[in-house]
């Protein structure tokens, strides 16, 4: 008897999903999970109370979001994948890659300027390394923008649903698709913020790269103490990082040969000095 009931349930489930496209099968699973969640949550609320419903909500929300996200990714990947066979798209992707790298360079320079307070061109090695480190961030920004534009354009201006011999879903499919797309956009947005957060691992890594590639504990300048790191920025000036206070400042290197001034420059004076370093 048990085996017979089991076979009937399996056959019923297979018949419900057969004939649909793969992404529609995920949407169908999302809808089934939603109705199952409603039933279990109702029974749990009546029998056990509100505090036990939260556990059911967390489990089913995760399942529904995962199935809808996979369905949306599969649905929109098919038309995007077809573009890779077109020559104009390959050329366009190459041009976009150059722009993305330039954007990554600008982000790298902005970070160095905000972190050290000096012109990024004075720290060329760290600038080059950070340009590569910021490439994933730059691609995330680009892909998020392009994907958003493509989805909106495709959804509103081009008939997305094409006649097909396959079974198609109605009604809740659009809600499942919307939910999946929103999850993708939220994940992309949070990934972008991961790089922008000053306390994130990405920012900490970028700071370490700047300090390890440009600033060194030993210096030929006698006005650099043991708890400080220094970087040569040319024309007799050095950028000093105080490890105790975490402050950067610019001074003239004292080699101990002449009585040249070793007075620490204030931020405005340091900025003027950096401007003077730029050759005419």
TrEMBL record:
Keywords: Membrane, Transmembrane, Transmembrane helix
Positions of transmembrane segments: 32-49, 55-76, 137-157, 178-195
Protein name, entry field: Uncharacterized protein
């Amino acid at each position: 008897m048990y085996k017979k009931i089991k076979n009937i349930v399996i056959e019923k489930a297979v018949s419900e999903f057969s004939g649909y496209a793969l992404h529609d099968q995920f949407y169908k699973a999302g809808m089934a999970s939603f109705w199952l969640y409603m039933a279990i949550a109702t029974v749990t609320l009546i029998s056990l109370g509100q505090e036990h419903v939260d556990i059911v909500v967390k489990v089913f929300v995760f399942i529904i979001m995962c199935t809808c996200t996979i369905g949306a990714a599969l649905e929109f990947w098919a038309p995007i994948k077809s573009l890779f066979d077109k020559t104009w798209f390959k050329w366009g992707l190459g041009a976009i890659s150059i722009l993305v790298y330039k954007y990554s360079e600008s982000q790298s320079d902005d970070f160095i300027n905000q972190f050290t307070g000096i012109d990024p061109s004075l720290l060329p090695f760290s600038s080059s390394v950070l340009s590569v480190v910021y490439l994933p961030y730059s691609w995330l920004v680009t892909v998020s923008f392009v994907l958003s534009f493509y989805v909106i354009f495709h959804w509103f201006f081009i008939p997305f649903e094409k006649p097909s011999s396959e079974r198609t879903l109605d009604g809740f499919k659009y809600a499942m698709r919307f939910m999946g797309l929103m999850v993708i956009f939220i994940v992309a947005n949070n990934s972008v913020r991961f790089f922008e957060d000053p306390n994130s691992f990405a920012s900490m890594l970028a700071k370490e790269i700047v300090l390890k590639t440009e600033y060194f504990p030993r210096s030929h300048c006698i006005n650099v103490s043991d708890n400080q790191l220094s970087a040569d920025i040319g024309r007799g000036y050095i950028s000093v990082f105080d490890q105790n206070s975490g402050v950067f400042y610019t001074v003239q290197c004292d080699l101990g040969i002449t009585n040249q001034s070793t007075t620490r420059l204030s931020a405005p004076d340091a900025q003027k000095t950096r401007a003077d370093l730029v050759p005419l």
